[in-house]
Amino acid sequence: MDVKARGNILGNIVPARYILVVLGSIGLAIVYGLKVNLSVAMVGMLNHTALKQNNLENGSLQNATNKATIDSPDQDGPFIWSSEVQGVILSCYFWGYFVSQIPGGRVAELFSAKWVMFLSVAINVLCTLLTPVMTELHYTALVCMRVLEGIGGGVTFPGMNVLLSKWSPPAERITMTALVYTGTSLGTVISMLMTGILTDKVGWESSFYVMGALSVIWCVLWVVLIQDSPEKQPLISIEERKMIITSLRGNSAKRDQKKIPVPWCAVFTSPAFIAILVAHTCSTWGWYLLLLDLPLYMKQVLHFNITQNTLSTALPFLTLWLFTIFLGKTLDWLRGKAIITTTTARKIASFIASVCPSVCLFALCFIENNRAAAVAIMTIGITSTGGLFCGFLANHIDIAPNFAGTLMALTNTVASIPGIVVPIFVGAITHHNQTIHEWRTIFYVTIGMYAIGITTYLAFGSSEEQPWNKVTVDNEVETKPLNEEKKTNV
């Protein structure tokens, strides 16, 4: 072997690929946590009294009659941002997210996914620490910080997909991808809870300083413990390295991808890829509605104060995390027993992630202000969305492991459009009338998006390796064992 195997710093207890899974999951948790903390902190940043007065002056009597009377009001913040401004602030993250995906995915494939992930988190940490200062200057300065965070956040999924394509044995792929990508829900839980508590007890600025500072620890661990592939990792046993490399040889994955051009025409005419693209985009509409605008729904319709809002919004993402891990292990077990195929496993998970939230959103339209029922329904709906991490979101590696980063970048780029549109759409619909009647329109549109996505995926989705993934360049060099290649060079 080119790299001497010493085993990882935990000896024989934890395999190197599991360290990648843990740190990868935490990395996504950080990025998502720093993405959603503004959604919760904004409840404490806004001057709700002034905004309600503005609504009254603009003739929104209906909104005034629905204001909370059983809870003490939250302490007003310093900012008087209209619904439209709030929508822009929440959506601007995705402006940067949109433009960085494809370049980030290709850089991760051609150079280093490890450093792409590192820079992604580092940019988010720096911008988060600067957020309070920039917000005090003007909301446009906050917009700039969020756009930069989006640029960093946009490359995380393509970068992680490249790492997983090189580190995840096919027999463990559903579980490993589920564990890594559910870091997004774990980060959501932690971020919402921390942000809510810090905003309520200390001040809205504290959440950005505390979470940004803690994230620096991950940056150090990532640089020290993670490498781009098993071949480059010194902290791995010989047996584990051999097992991973051997298991991946069967899927035509080329270890050195610098000479492989992307077959763009074949990609965009592939039904399997189009199915992932449509499912990813439509499902993300619902995901970002729940992720970014759920705190506003809890405040505007159910009239929760900030502490109640935080707990009710965050806890469903904890059950999502647990459910996704259970679902991933179950599907891998069923595949191992040859009860279902990988394609079937992906479709089952995607079906759960689309149909269950749709039913729950439909139910929310008719419960009015029943808080307990609303929280229970939202918990079920959010929990079931965890299926997407075992479903189409992990499908790119199945159909084309050589281009896992680029394919994820392509679908995630299009799927970031709902992240831009949804907050603005919600702000426009609820402008001056923040009641269940307006939210019904929002829920119906979301149900329609879910229906389009899952119908397309069930019809055309596949986990079979696509012909255009197969590598013919330098094939004879690729198949030589490392020790024989080394002797040839000598």
Automatic annotation (TrEMBL):
Location in the cell: Membrane
State the superkingdom.
Eukaryota
Q: Cross-referenced CDD domains, in alphabetical order?
A: MFS_SLC17
Q: Which InterPro entries match?
A: MFS (IPR011701), MFS_dom (IPR020846), MFS_Na/Anion_cotransporter (IPR050382), MFS_trans_sf (IPR036259)
Membrane topology, from the record: Multi-pass membrane protein
Does the UniProt entry include the keyword RNA-binding?
A: no
Q: Can the keyword Nucleus be found in this entry's annotation?
A: no
> What does the entry list under GO cellular component?
membrane
Q: Could you tell me which residue ranges the Major facilitator superfamily (MFS) profile domain spans?
A: 13-465
Q: Molecular function (GO) terms listed?
A: symporter activity
Q: Which UniProt keywords apply?
A: Membrane, Symport, Transmembrane, Transmembrane helix, Transport
SUPFAM superfamilies per the UniProt record, alphabetical: MFS general substrate transporter
Coiled-coil segments on the chain, per record: none
Name its GO BP terms in alphabetical order. Answer: monoatomic anion transport
Membrane-crossing residues?
Answer: 12-34, 79-99, 111-133, 139-164, 176-194, 206-226, 264-290, 310-328, 348-367, 373-394, 406-429, 441-460
Pfam families according to UniProt: MFS_1
- Name this protein carries in UniProt: Major facilitator superfamily (MFS) profile domain-containing protein
Origin species: Arctia plantaginis
